[in-house]
Amino acid sequence: MLISEFSRRSGVSIPTIKYYVRQGLLEPGRAMTAKRFEYGERHMRRLRLVRALIGVRGLSVRAARDVVETVFQHRGDIHEMLGLVLGAHRETAAVESAGAAEPAAPAAGDQEAAAEVTALLERIGWRVGENSPAREALAHALSTLRSLGAEADWRTLMPYAELAQRTAALDLDGLRGVDDPLERAERAVLLTLMLEPALLALRRLAQEGESARRLSAARESEPARQHAA
């Protein structure tokens, strides 16, 4: 299809498509003449992925480009692809938030929390790289909880880790039987980046629902307690 048809079918304006091509987010179309280019279904699928990363997930153009380049350069091994996707997004976000400033040295609390994270990983049996971005993020979150007076260590995290284990199994099951490299790359991004807001929303909904259930149960038991008294 020509770029006009590509724009109409995708719902993305022609200037935006050209901008994505210039920024390396989208591969150029096949040249038919000096000014006419042809686009195919693979362009359409990649454009949907880019729009999801930028429009839905809120990544910057730079971060989205890093993620897209990662998944299309490492299409074979699922384990490696997931790690690279998470690492590209995490590192790019850190650079953008820090600007030109030098990275701060880890605080003592973060170092203590890192030891707790190591203890958690050992007890639950997860094989995770020493430089995993998620490992660092968990240690920082644990350190923050402690600084606010919460009693947080690997034992308090264990029930949550067990729930996360079940979620991870569902995630990886979603990649089974996918032979096409592009589709596998798309699913890897969906599982690692796009699903996170949905999981957070589900947790908040569950908290609200559980709170309402407990409140209702307390109100129903109140007349019985008054009658007994």
Automatic annotation (TrEMBL):
Entry's SUPFAM superfamilies? Putative DNA-binding domain
Sorted alphabetically, which InterPro entries does this protein's record hold? DNA-bd_dom_put_sf, MerR-type_HTH_dom, MerR_fam
Task: Extract the Pfam families matched here.
Answer: MerR_1
- Show the SMART domains listed in the entry: HTH_MERR
Which UniProt keyword terms apply here?
DNA-binding
Residue span(s) of domain HTH merR-type: 1-70
Source domain of life: Bacteria
What PROSITE patterns is this protein classified in?
A: HTH_MERR_2 (PS50937)
- Show the PANTHER family listed in the entry: HTH-TYPE TRANSCRIPTIONAL REGULATOR ADHR, REDOX-CYCLING DRUG-SENSING TRANSCRIPTIONAL ACTIVATOR SOXR
The identity of this protein, by name, is MerR family transcriptional regulator
